[in-house]
Amino acid sequence: MKFAKIKMILALAVAGMIASSAQAQEFGPEWGENATAEQRHQNALTFNYYKDAYDNKNYDQALIYLKDLLEKCPKARVNIYVWGTNIYKQKIARATSLNERGAYTDSLMMLYDKRVENFADHATYGLGYILKAKARDYAMFKASDVRGVIDNFTAAVKANEDDVDPTFINQYFNVLTEAYKNLDVETDEYMENYEYLAELMAKAANEEQQTAFDALFSSSGAADCENLEKIYKERVEANPDDLDLIIKVFNQMNRVDCATEFFVSVGQKYMAMQPSSSIAMALATAYEKMGDIENSLESLKAAVASETDPMLRAQLCIQIAGNMLSLNNPREAADFAKQAIEINPDNGFAYITLASAYAQGAGSCSGFDAQSVYWLAYDVLQNARRLFADDAAQLEQVNMLMNTYRGSFPSKEECFFRGLTTGAAHTVQCGWVSGRTTVK
To answer: Of 175, 205, 221, which closes a domain?
Structure first.
């Protein structure tokens, strides 16, 4: 209390000094554009009283002074608005009813508008700064007014186009994305805003900020292939050599598993400029979904050529072999399965694929020679069974396949006629299929 009294005495003393020096000191037009010198002095005194009431947290009295200053000298000092904003936030926080809270919130927004009228051209805290602060407070205190929140953020972003704030844009885009998910914003409006904000983010966002922005878009559900193509197709056609643009479009479309002509055209451009197995694999998947197995295989082959990780290379070879089998090309399937085994002899799927290729290749001959191929395929599956010994599900599949092959072995009579006994060495020769095995 003593401290407050001392401050009040000092304030009155200052006021007295101002009043006594009225003839010697002049206040500019900001203290009252059409006011007399005496009125301007009085306005300056009111400002001092306002500051003292604010410092002492006498907010009710401060608001009386604030109203007077806004009416008589709204251009006097920017602190008129700074302190007033803080006061209204305190009032909102302490409001005991929705009506009271709403009234103080409306006053806060009015104060921001009044500040725009009088200090939009402030060198440091001008229009852009004011509208950002207003948008944040509107979102905090009037969140239920979704359209109002969006409109305030939109105005703030446009006012700051020359000084992009990625954090603020992400805050806005989060609001916009939630509104879209809740059906408060139509797809066309959302996509239009996304494109506009994405261009701004490209100017100033760091990797973390950009990742957060992209994640919001992906989570929205609006990031489907059709919408992405609408946004980017003309831009890519106009800038086919823009690597940054190509990467951005490819990653966004790949993230939502696009399988369209536009996506593969972007992927081909990307692959030509910066070859990698991950691009080739994404293209292979897209081609496969489009029913274009031949181009899918070509992309997988390109992935094998680009990949340096041996385990991944082996997996790619198995994938290629599987596609070759679906194209009824068992010979090439076997070649890639053998490559996979050479790279990683502990991959059980490689042996299953090779055995399947041999079985399919049995069609290249007939009779005993074709039947003996199943001895060779059976041997290969023995390796798969060993590798899947601890995997019950896979082991069951391997055993079923081995039983199937056993049913295609040459008969005992055929072996006896040829002078072959169980366990004897035998060389299989059936078209392109060849190898050493034993009679079974």
So the answer is: 221
- Report the candidate in 84, 138, 73 with the shortest Cα–Cα distance to residue 111: 84
Is residue 403 included in any domain, yes or no? yes
**50 touches 63 (CB < 8 A):** no
Whole-number Å distance between alpha carbons of 284 and 292: 9
Cα–Cα distance for residue pair 376/435, rounded to 1 Å = 7
- 171: amino acid identity, one letter: Q
**CA 255 – CA 224 distance, rounded (Å):** 10
Q: DSSP characters for 281-326?
A: HHHHHHHHHTT-HHHHHHHHHHHHHH---HHHHHHHHHHHHHHHHH
- Measured between alpha carbons, how far is 435 from 334 in angstroms, rounded to an integer? 13
First to last CA, the chain: 106
Task: Answer for the pair 391, 323: CB distance below 8 angstroms, yes or no.
Answer: no
More confident residue, 304 or 130: 130
Write out the H or E segment, with its range, that includes residue 203. helix 187-204
Among residues 400, 417, 404, which one has the least CA distance to residue 439?
A: 417
Q: What is the pLDDT of residues 328-362, one digit of tens each?
A: 999 999 999 999 999 999 999 999 999 999 999 99
| For helices 225-238 and 187-204, angle between their N-to-C axes, nearest 10 degrees | 50
Question: What is the total count of domains within the chain?
Answer: 3
Please give the structure tokens belonging to residue 124. 């440091």
Choose the final residue of a domain: 184, 199, 221.
Answer: 221
Q: What Cα–Cα distance (Å) separates residue 155 from each residue in 208, 327, 399?
A: 25, 58, 68
CA distance 428 to 430: 6
Q: Do 347 and 439 share a domain, yes or no? A: yes
Tell me: do 384 and 421 sit in the same domain: yes
Q: What is the DSSP string of 165-176?
A: -HHHHHHHHHHH
C-alpha 309/C-alpha 76 separation (Å) is 69
Whole-number Å distance between alpha carbons of 69 and 249: 54
Amino acid (1-letter code) at residue 34: N
pLDDT digits (tens, 9 = 90+) for 175-189: 999 999 999 999 989
User: Rounded to the nearest 10 degrees, how much is the dihedral formed by the CA atoms of 86, 89, 90, 94?
Assistant: 170
Whole-angstrom distance, CA of residue 437 vs CA of residue 379: 7
Residues spanned by the domain of 297: 224-308
Element (H, E) at 434: strand 433-438
| CATH number of 251's domain | 1.25.40.10
* 363/430 Cα distance (integer angstroms): 9
